[in-house]
Write a structure and sequence with these properties.
The structure holds two protein chains of two kinds. By secondary structure, chain A is mainly alpha-helical. In chain A, 77% of the residues lie in helices and 1% in strands. Chain A contains 15 helices and two strands. Chain A is globular, with a radius of gyration of 20 Å. The mean pLDDT of chain A is 89. The model of chain B has no long low-confidence stretch (mean pLDDT 89). Chain B has one domain: Rossmann fold, CATH 3.40.50.300. In chain B, the strands form two sheets. In chain B, strands 6-7-8-3-9-10 form a six-stranded mixed β-sheet, with helices on both faces. Chain B starts with a strand and ends with a helix. Chain B is built from ten helices and ten strands. By secondary structure, chain B is α/β, with parallel strands linked by helices. The chains are: A mainly alpha, B alpha/beta. Chains A and B meet through α8 and α9 of A and α2 and α3 of B.
Chain lengths: 318, 242
């Protein structure tokens, strides 16, 4: 057994992370395949969204089944800002993100007083209500027929690196959040909201803050998706299966960990892509089965499985 | 330090606490005792801001704390522990204390971290800082409750049955820890406790509650001789026979 000095693991992780990011960034120059270009861009976007979901679902322990609402609001606001008000793309994304975050606060401030399953049930209602209202608001969303955003083919190619940038930012934000006083306070609220108040944690303010950050990032992802896909419609953007997909990624990957949503998102995109075309029923069934297996046998998902393989004692697990 | 004036807590028709007043002097250890259901924990909850009193007022020095939320009471310097331990299961021991220090101690992040380490060491848990609370025994978790509460740098510590439920050797150590907290950390302490030898050893002043009412107060040796106290604990017939 080789023993490493205490600073070594951290540097090894950092170096590994930098190498992976560099490889992904250079990949299109080495082997420019349209299919993989598309797949990786999309995966990076979903990784970002899954990380943002995990700030609320993992760190705070408030599992949202309605995060597609912010994804959709961000997407449509960003599209409208670009098409009707002729703002540049990045301003459009940011505007969509801010509106989505603010929208999250409007429904979230009252509902975050609920905890656990009660909060989750409320978010199902929020998600579905948002979908219905936005389907009727054709001035914003174009109704059921949706919106087409003109996409420049060069821009679409470049969006690959934008997606990588978003994912790296979300990953660094997750890490900083986990180590920051805010992250510790969120985990304390997740453990025991009353005991947290007894050591001075103001739960309502911090819950609102993290919900805003999560909604903001979700909205930016929606804006990116609008620019990348070139066509968005409410049934897809606000769809319940989209909301569910974020929960699945978090839970299957490892809820509350940082690697978890990343792994979960990758597994999700790959499985969905390979199964959806031929066995559309099988794909949802497969996710259902893996969800049950994770909840029954390994509450920390793929990350927990990895720790079991590495034989980390329970006391050292995240 | 802390002053309760005519505290009343009603739950529907039940008066859980019925007009209780007492005063904690600086550097004192005050015992709040009484049989089960006497209203001790409800009193604690009102002092710590966990629940607002129906009537009455709570002061810390000159500052009125009546009805403020728990997180503000903690930041003002009144911090409680829990009868049934409530560690933050998702955080390491050091992080458990760091949260408290960051939120309450008014130190910067570095200072808060140093205070958290110091308090873990104070409670004898410094070797286990990177463990999760799940890895501790009950006595260890009770010490963690103490370390976490002290990381708030409180003026007044409210200890809710920190000794009950551990073995005699651990109880002895916990008692010593409480005395050291008073002397070294300069906190004044209100404690509820069922373990009478610990009350006799630690408390300078005792307030006895029964059925929500204050029935006796004074030095512990005097209070245990008080007929109403004996009646509350052992029943009327025995008291009369004695």
């Amino acid at each position: 057994m080789i023993s490493l000095p205490p600073w070594a693991p951290r540097r090894i992780y950092l170096a590994g992370f930098a190498i992976v990011v560099a490889l992904i960034a250079l990949l299109p120059f080495i082997h420019d395949n349209y299919y993989w270009h598309n797949q990786i861009t999309f995966t990076l976007l979903i990784v970002t969204a899954a990380l943002a979901w995990n700030w609320l679902g993992g760190l705070l322990g408030q599992v949202s089944f309605g995060h597609a609402a912010m994804f959709g609001v961000g997407g449509f606001v960003a599209a409208r800002l670009q098409m009707s008000a002729h703002f540049p793309m990045l301003i459009g994304w940011l505007g969509g993100g801010v509106i989505a975050g603010s929208y999250a606060l409007i429904w979230g401030h009252p509902t975050l007083r609920l905890r656990g399953p009660y909060f989750s049930i409320a978010t199902i209602g929020v998600g579905e209500a948002t979908r219905l209202i936005c389907t009727y608001w054709s001035w914003l969303t174009g109704g059921s027929s949706g919106l087409s955003i003109p996409v420049d083919i060069d821009l679409k190619h470049q969006l690959y690196w934008y997606a990588l940038g978003l994912a790296v930012l979300a990953l660094m934000a997750s890490y900083a959040l986990r180590k920051s006083p805010l992250g510790l306070s969120l985990l304390a609220i997740k453990s025991d909201v009353d005991a947290a108040a007894d050591v001075g944690v103001s739960s309502s303010r911090l819950q609102d803050l993290v919900l805003f950050l999560s909604g903001l990032t979700m909205g930016i992802c929606g804006g990116f998706y609008a620019s990348y896909a070139g066509f968005i419609e409410p049934g897809d953007m606000f769809g319940f299966d989209r909301s569910i997909s974020f929960v699945l990624m978090g839970v299957i990957g490892g809820i509350g960990t940082i690697a978890g949503p990343v792994l979960g998102a990758m597994v999700f995109v790959v499985l969905k892509e390979s199964l959806l075309a031929y066995y559309p029923q099988l794909y949802l069934g497969l996710f259902g089965i893996s969800l049950i297996l994770v909840i029954l046998f390994e509450p920390l998902g793929l990350v927990g499985l990895g720790m079991r393989v590495l034989r980390k004692p329970i006391g050292e697990r995240p | 330090m802390i002053r309760a004036e005519g505290l009343v807590k009603r739950y529907g028709g039940l008066r859980a606490v019925d007009g209780v007043s007492f005063r904690l002097q600086e550097g004192q250890i005050l015992g709040l005792i009484g049989p089960n259901g006497a209203g001790k924990s409800t009193c604690f909850a009102m002092l710590a801001g966990s629940t607002p009193p129906t009537e009455g007022r709570v002061f810390l020095g000159d500052r009125e704390l009546t009805g403020i939320p728990a997180f503000r009471a903690a930041r003002a310097g009144v911090v409680r522990t829990h009868q049934i331990v409530r560690p933050f299961a998702h955080l390491t021991l050091l992080e458990n204390c760091t949260v408290a220090a960051v939120q309450c101690s008014q130190l910067d992040h570095r200072g808060a971290l140093a205070l958290a380490r110091e308090m873990l060491k104070f409670a004898g848990l410094d070797a286990r800082g990177n463990d999760k609370p799940a890895a501790l025994t009950l006595a260890g978790r009770k010490r963690l409750e103490m370390a976490r509460a002290l990381s708030c740098a409180p003026k007044v510590l409210l200890l809710d049955e920190v000794i009950a439920g551990v073995n005699p050797a651990e109880a002895q150590e916990m008692g010593t820890l409480i005395l050291r907290a008073r002397d070294e950390r300069k906190v004044s302490i209100v404690m509820t406790e069922h373990v009478m030898p610990a009350v006799m050893r630690l408390c300078e002043y005792v307030v006895v509650l029964d059925a929500g009412k204050l029935i006796a107060e004074g030095k512990p040796q005097e209070v245990v001789q008080h007929p109403e106290v004996i009646a509350a604990y052992l029943g009327k017939a025995r008291a009369n026979a004695g």
